């Protein structure tokens, strides 16, 4: 089964899953559970993998994004049901619609899943270096608040991503990220300059009053269970998906 699920007890009102690269239909270098339709893989293989994800989650619809490393958040609802096209030029989705999956594709960037159960609001964000630097997660929280969520009630789960110990950047670039996302600047295991996006996001979220934060510590750069753009160049994409149950 290619899906690792959190909050999966049947009685819970929200589900969150992260996929790995195992168990799909794609051939090398996308082997095998590639969910990205924009990376050069056989479209039929991607479609088969996405169908399998729907079956595994029990969903009829997962909304995907045309991720461009922006800080743009889009609110979606029932109008997205049955529409296989990605939402254009956005890097976060928010909804109050029940059983409408929100998906984010990554291969080193941080997949961020958010929920305020009491308000019935969920979100997902694609937090790469640029998006995180420019406030994509902050904007996602603010959009959720606009729909009735409260920062103190929001729960956040961050999935496998590039860890600071392996995420090398030129010093000038790393310090630029730190200027906009304090707490992200780090030294890698090699002693070079780098960034830890997840650590910076935790600090940012806590500064907004969001304190229920969990993070999967696995590093996509070193863990071959996951796709990694930095490790492989041409490769697939794994996903994070969140949805509200009825």
Task: Based on the model shown, name its key terms.
single chain, 6 helices, alpha+beta, 5-stranded mixed sheet, 6-stranded mixed sheet, 246 residues, 13 strands
Description of the structure:
With 246 residues, the chain is of the alpha+beta class. Helices cover 23% and strands 24% of the residues. The chain has 6 helices and 13 strands. It has helices spanning 43-57, 129-133, 136-146, 171-180, 197-207, 229-232; strands at residues 3-6, 14-19, 62-63, 73-75, 92-95, 101-106, 110-116, 121-127, 155-158, 185-187, 193-195, 212-215, 238-244. The strands form 3 sheets. Strands 4-5-8-7-9-12 form a 6-stranded mixed beta sheet. The chain has a 5-stranded mixed beta sheet with strand order 1-2-13-6-3, covered by helices on one side. A hairpin with a 5-residue loop joins strand 10 (185-187) and strand 11 (193-195). It starts with a strand and ends with a strand.
Write the layout of secondary structure elements.
Blueprint: E1 3-6, E2 14-19, H1 43-57, E3 62-63, E4 73-75, E5 92-95, E6 101-106, E7 110-116, E8 121-127, H2 129-133, H3 136-146, E9 155-158, H4 171-180, E10 185-187, E11 193-195, H5 197-207, E12 212-215, H6 229-232, E13 238-244
